[in-house]
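The protein record reproduced below.
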Amino acid sequence: MKKNIPKIEFKKYNPQDIIGLKKTRKILEDKKDEIILYGGVFIGILFLISGILYLNSPVKKVADNVIFGEHAVMAIFLMIIGILVIVTALKEKIISKTPLADMYTEMKAIENEKDKKDKKNNIE
């Protein structure tokens, strides 16, 4: 008296398909340059603002102007970091207006070809 138990088959789902990570990854790869640009400018502006606010903070007089000097150095450091982050984020726009634009685009094309070859050969 064997009972015929129906066999249940489950479809194999890729968890990334269910969550939508593949679509999200593709969107991020397509918009990577824009995200870096806007994120870099935003972070650079935050550094600049924090440097300005740090420079304008009140200083307690302990001995001469030593503490003010420390505040000023830290504020200038934050502002320089902010400027460097902004310049780095805007590097492609800055380079496109210089005579180095052709060389930069050629190097970028070579890098893209290497990336495509690596992906084709499954080398990461």
